[in-house]
Design a protein that fits this description.
The protein is of the alpha/beta class. It is 38% helix and 14% strand. It has a domain of 178 residues: HUPs (Rossmann fold, 3-Layer(aba) Sandwich), CATH 3.40.50.
């Protein structure tokens, strides 16, 4: 099943994190996002998510730009290098937007403060979901080392879910985890910052791996609470993952073989473009982005 041809101009983004060297799974997402956007004459943003202060490194930023060049992809908006990124595009420059959204959610009663550690949660929750320990304790929001969590919906809630590939449907929000929107280090969590950034840059199409489907659900619920109608109208495509020899998804934390290693070995990205074509149901050989775009345009 192929991507829909949208009636409005498509705006999407590449959103890597500079917290480790990129791997084949990251490249596959880049290729899918780029090719679908280009096939529909859309607008593509490079948005580097750098709020993880503990792990972000300049060498990882450099790897993002090198990977995009190696894949021979381009983008219409975003940083042209490390210096430009830090000066004009870092998420640090949008902290005021995130803080404003957090304060608004807090003032509307959608949040509660939580002192629980991951160890505390694992000790009483077999599946790792938040057990509700601090939800009714009135923990002070302004205490140090305190996270802010979202109250789950009290009644059945259904929200629209627009799919770029496949039929649109509604998502029922039941037993939603009380996820974090502000971390103990006082920085906004990914679920919140990603919504704010997508609204800020007017993104209307998000292409991400199946491993982020839960994140999409959290973000749709959060967008509903914040009244972010633009995000609720976003089209999503959750693609299959690249797996390792053990059938596990590739992960920076598990030190999946990096694309830097591929480049050092003189390995071309041909197989990644072929994998993207196969995922999109396209037949025939595909070894680069231009071929992939042409194949998409021919069939649409």
């Amino acid at each position: 099943m192929l991507p829909k041809s949208l009636s409005h101009p498509l705006r999407s983004r590449l959103a890597p994190t500079p917290s480790g060297l990129l791997h084949a799974g990251n490249a596959l997402n880049f290729i899918l996002t780029w090719s679908i956007t280009r096939a529909q004459n859309g607008h593509l943003l490079l948005r580097i998510d750098d709020l993880d202060k503990a792990r972000r490194r300049d060498k990882y930023l450099k790897d993002i730009f090198r990977t995009i060049d190696w894949l021979e992809l381009d983008y219409d908006e975003g940083p042209q290098g490390i210096v430009d990124f830090k000066k004009n595009w870092s998420q640090d420059l949008r902290l005021e937007l995130y803080d404003h959204a957090l304060l608004e959610l807090r003032n509307k009663g959608h949040l509660f403060a939580c002192k629980c550690s991951r160890r505390d949660i694992r000790a009483i929750s077999a599946d790792g979901n938040y057990p509700g320990t601090c939800a009714k304790l009135s923990v002070d929001f302004d205490q140090k080392a305190t996270a802010w969590r979202v109250h789950p919906p009290k009644a059945l809630l259904q929200l629209p879910f627009h799919q770029l590939i496949g039929a649109d449907r509604k998502i029922s929000f039941e037993n939603l985890d009380a996820f974090i929107v502000k971390q103990k280090n006082a920085y906004p969590a990914y679920q919140l910052s990603s919504i704010i950034d997508d609204e800020y840059f007017k993104i209307n199409t998000i292409i991400r791996g199946q491993d982020l489907l839960d994140s999409t659900h959290y973000q749709l619920y959060l967008a509903f609470l914040m009244g972010k109608s633009g995000f609720l109208d976003t089209y999503f495509y959750h693609h299959d993952m690249m797996l390792d020899e053990q059938g596990e998804k590739l992960s920076k934390s598990k030190k999946a073989t990096s694309l830097q290693s591929w480049r050092e070995q003189g390995r071309a990205p041909d197989e990644l473009f072929q994998k993207a074509a196969t995922l999109l149901g396209l037949k025939g050989n595909c070894t680069n982005g231009q071929m992939l775009v042409q194949m998409l345009r021919t069939i649409q």
